[in-house]
C-alpha cells in the first residue's frame, strides 16, 4: 500500500498518485496505474475541480481507458502520454512561476497500463517507479532510462528515485519470475482439466488488476478464454491485448476468474460443477512470507483441491537491490513504509545502497548521498527480448 503523499518536491507544482489535501495546489497531475491506493482523492469532485481550474491528469493510454470506464464523461480532463517517448509539459505554479518539465512514461510491469514516470527539469531528474516489477535481466531494455553512449547504453543517474518498497523486506528476498509462476499454473490447470471432462479451474486473484498477463498466457496455452465478471469484462474489452482472452459467457469455458475473493465455496456464475470437480488456484505472495519460494506452488494444507502459487506483481528484495544498484541515484525515497517497520525499511535501503558503492554517505535524517559509480562495477544484464515480466504497457 503506497504511503507516498503525492508531491514531488524537486519539481514544484506536480503531484503523482495522490489527489487530495495539499496536492490540490498542484498544477499538473499524474497517475501511474489504476490501483485504489494510488488513486486517493480521485473522485468526480476532483475532476470537476481540475476542469474548472483548467488542469489535467496525465497517464498511459491503457490507464486512460480504465479511468474513462470509471469516470464517464471526464475524458477531456485526462491526457494520455506515450510510453518511452518524452512529453514536454508547460505550466504555471500557484506562485505563477513558469515551469517546463519533460516526462517520460516507462512500462512498470505491474498491471495493465502501469508506468513509471521520469521527470526532467533543468538539472533535476526524478524517477517515480509507481508499483513495479521488472526482471533484472530486462533493466538494460528500459531504453528511456539510459544515456546513449557511442556503442552502448549507459544506465542513467537520477537526482532521486521514488521507489516501490512494498517488498523491501528480508521476509521477501526472492520470488519466482512471473513466467515461472505462470508455467506452474498452466501445468496444474492442464493436469486437472485432463483428468475429467467435468473438471473446472477457479483462479482466485486478489486485486482487480494485476493478473491479466496470467490470463493471457493461460488462455493461450489451454486454448480457452477466461470467464470474468461482467464489470471486469466490460473494462478488459477496452484493452486490445486482453479482450480476446476473456469471456462473459460462463458456460463457454472451464477456467473461471469470476469470483470475488471472499465468497462461499463453489462457482456462482451459472456453471454446474460439483465441489469435487473444482480446483482453486490462488496466485499470491503473502502466503509465501519467509517461505522457500523456489517451491513455486504447492497444495494447500487445509483447503481441499486448492493450489497456492507464489506470484508477485511487485519486486522482491533481490530485484529491488538489482534495480538500485543498476541505476544511479543521489537519493532514494521509499514509497511504501509501514509505520511499525519504518526503521527496518530505512536500514535495509541504506544497506542496499552500501553494497552498491563503497563511497556511500548516509545522513542520519535519511538522505542517501551517493557518488557516481564506476562504469566497470555495473552489473552486466543481458537479455535478447523483453521478458514476460514486463507486458503492462
Ligand atoms: Zn498497484
Ligand atoms: Zn465463471
UniProtKB/TrEMBL annotation:
<dbReference type="GO" id="GO:0004519">
    <property type="term" value="F:endonuclease activity"/>
</dbReference>
<dbReference type="InterPro" id="IPR011084">
    <property type="entry name" value="DRMBL"/>
</dbReference>
<dbReference type="GO" id="GO:0005634">
    <property type="term" value="C:nucleus"/>
</dbReference>
<dbReference type="Pfam" id="PF07522">
    <property type="entry name" value="DRMBL"/>
</dbReference>
<keyword id="KW-0234">DNA repair</keyword>
<dbReference type="GO" id="GO:0000723">
    <property type="term" value="P:telomere maintenance"/>
</dbReference>
<keyword id="KW-0227">DNA damage</keyword>
<dbReference type="GO" id="GO:0006303">
    <property type="term" value="P:double-strand break repair via nonhomologous end joining"/>
</dbReference>
<dbReference type="GO" id="GO:0035312">
    <property type="term" value="F:5'-3' DNA exonuclease activity"/>
</dbReference>
<comment type="similarity">
    <text>Belongs to the DNA repair metallo-beta-lactamase (DRMBL) family.</text>
</comment>
<dbReference type="GO" id="GO:0003684">
    <property type="term" value="F:damaged DNA binding"/>
</dbReference>
<keyword id="KW-0255">Endonuclease</keyword>
<dbReference type="GO" id="GO:0006310">
    <property type="term" value="P:DNA recombination"/>
</dbReference>
<dbReference type="GO" id="GO:0036297">
    <property type="term" value="P:interstrand cross-link repair"/>
</dbReference>
<protein>
    <recommendedName>
        <fullName>Protein artemis</fullName>
    </recommendedName>
</protein>
<keyword id="KW-0378">Hydrolase</keyword>
<keyword id="KW-0540">Nuclease</keyword>
<feature type="domain" description="DNA repair metallo-beta-lactamase">
    <location>
        <begin position="242"/>
        <end position="337"/>
    </location>
</feature>
<keyword id="KW-0539">Nucleus</keyword>
<dbReference type="InterPro" id="IPR036866">
    <property type="entry name" value="RibonucZ/Hydroxyglut_hydro"/>
</dbReference>
<keyword id="KW-0233">DNA recombination</keyword>
<keyword id="KW-0269">Exonuclease</keyword>
